[in-house]
Amino acid sequence: MTTDTRAVVIGGGIVGCSVAYHLARLGWTDTILVEQHDLTDGTTWHSAGFVTALRGVPAHRKLVSYYPALARVLAAETGRDAGWRPVGGLRLATTSARVDELRRQAHAAEDAGIMMELRTASSAAPLAPLLDLDGVQAAAWLPGDGFVRPKDASATLAEAAGALGVQVKKGVKVSGLKLNGKKIAGVTTSEGTIHADTVVLATGAATASLGHLAGAAVPVVPLKHQYAVTAAFDPALDPDKLPTVRDPDANLYLRGAGGGLIIGGYATVPEPAWPTDGSAPLAEPRALFKPQSTEELAVAAAARVPGLPDIIKIVNGPEGFTPDGEPLIGATEVPGLWVAAGMGLHGLGLAGGAGKCLAELITAGQSEWDMQPFNPQRFGPFAHNRHWITTRAVDAFQRTFR
Ligand SMILES: Cc1cc2nc3c(=O)[nH]c(=O)nc-3n(C[C@H](O)[C@H](O)[C@H](O)COP(=O)(O)OP(=O)(O)OC[C@H]3O[C@@H](n4cnc5c(N)ncnc54)[C@H](O)[C@@H]3O)c2cc1C
Fold it and tell me: Which one, 96, 233, 235, 326, has the greatest CB density within 10 A?
């Protein structure tokens, strides 16, 4: 079967759903979204969903700050819960260096228009009575932070896109990218060819492999990341009543989920997850890796949360990272081939804004917010070197999360 369309978005995770929705909102309703599995079955389905605006370059903050407003629009358009939970965020400092960092971040937040309040441990305590704040020298309260329920958010984006005319094709795998000379001309799929002058790679951790199909270097490196889930408290904890908590000195973050907690930390040396058989990442639906040890995490969490229930589940999954830790949003070196990927553990917060800005770049040649820091071609010829991109992505992960 051969089809003609204006744009093809490859990837039905939260980012692809957002790109397709925003293209349609800008009038490109003749768009087809192609997902090889079911929607979200790459990385999005298992995301812990934490969202904070307090990170990255100003453009990053702009993108994240857009999400709550988008969630309200989506809820109004679909009549469904768009998955945004504005529970606020608490960031703890237990060392004087971390207190200094919080003070610096407070200045940056003020410049960026992000609400952030510095508190003493005793004035932070009522925000999260569950916590033992022993050793906390200061805390930052970010009322705009929260978490996203990944499946609800993606489903409302896909539904709203569909209502505008986007065709969502699930269980359809892209096996080739068609070129006309040097320009993109469409995609070859398990269900035939789709001709289009515009193709978007929203393929998460698999994006480097998809780029290769057109000879484009799109430096997204799959790395493993994991968190744990505890049993429910008795009585069960309402996840919508607890702020997200980050305790970077203990390498710990947590939020409510399923009556208990999601607890996580960051690997000292994250492990690349390039498939050893030469296949593309995400080829299997909902694939997870063997869990790593959670001993240190459990000790850190139990010290901060008295009466912490036992860990009942560990989720170790793939995520796409770039050589500098910032996403790729924009044009690739192949005319007509665009990318929104490499979200580096911030995809839930970034997806709304990434979809909006990429759709603006595609349809109008410019976006409301400056996407230059996320230019997919910023690494030049180094992007072709898998060893270089992997080494740099590991390094960026270590610098970002410690
Ligand atoms: C354990 C863990 C915890 C996380 N926690 C957080 C968090 O707290 N907050 C946060 O913001 N982020 C978090 N992340 C990251 C976040 O989940 C991702 O950034 C986000 O889900 C990426 O969305 P995506 O749409 O880019 O990718 P994906 O969800 O992976 O979607 C890409 C899609 O492309 C499809 N695809 C690939 N190749 C093809 C092909 N050839 N043909 C058709 N379809 C194809 C895949 O099947 C997949 O569905 C976490 C990640 C992990 C691993």
Answer: 326
Asked which of 105-114, 137-146, 257-266, 381-390 is least confident by mean pLDDT, the reply is 105-114
Superfamily the domain 2-80+149-219+323-400 falls into: FAD/NAD(P)-binding domain (3.50.50.60)
DSSP state for residue 231 in the 8-state scheme: P
Cβ neighbours for 150, distance < 8 A, ≥ 6 positions apart: 14, 40, 44, 45, 46, 47, 49, 83, 348
Query: Is a pLDDT exceeding 90 seen at residue 111?
Result: no
pLDDT at 54 (0 to 100): 86
Contact 313, 228 (CB under 8 A): yes
Q: Which of 206, 244, 202, 215 is nearest to 330 (CA)?
A: 202
Amino acid identity for residue 119 in this structure = R
What CATH class is the domain 87-143+222-321?
alpha beta
Using one digit for the tens of pLDDT, what is the confidence trace for 278-302? Answer: 899 999 999 999 999 999 999 999 9
Residues 50, 27: contact at Cβ < 8 Å? no
Residue nearest to atom 48 of ligand 1 (CA): 42
CA–CA gap between residue 388 and residue 379 (Å, rounded): 10
List, in order, residues 6 or more apart from 25 with CB less than 8 Å away.
Answer: 164, 359
The residue whose CA is least distant from atom 20 of ligand 1 is 347
For residue 260, list its beta bridge partners.
257
Report the Cα 294 to chain-centroid distance in Å.
Answer: 23
Domain boundaries, the chain: 2-80+149-219+323-400, 87-143+222-321
- Residue whose CA lies nearest to ligand 1 atom number 2: 47
Is the pLDDT at 3 greater than 70? The verdict is: yes
The preferred substitution site among 148, 203, 263 for testing ligand 1, maximizing ligand atoms within 8 Å of CB, is: 203
* 256 SS3 class: strand
pLDDT beyond 70 at 402: no
C-alpha torsion sign, points 93, 98, 100, 105:
negative
Helix (H, G, I), strand (E, B) or coil at 49: coil
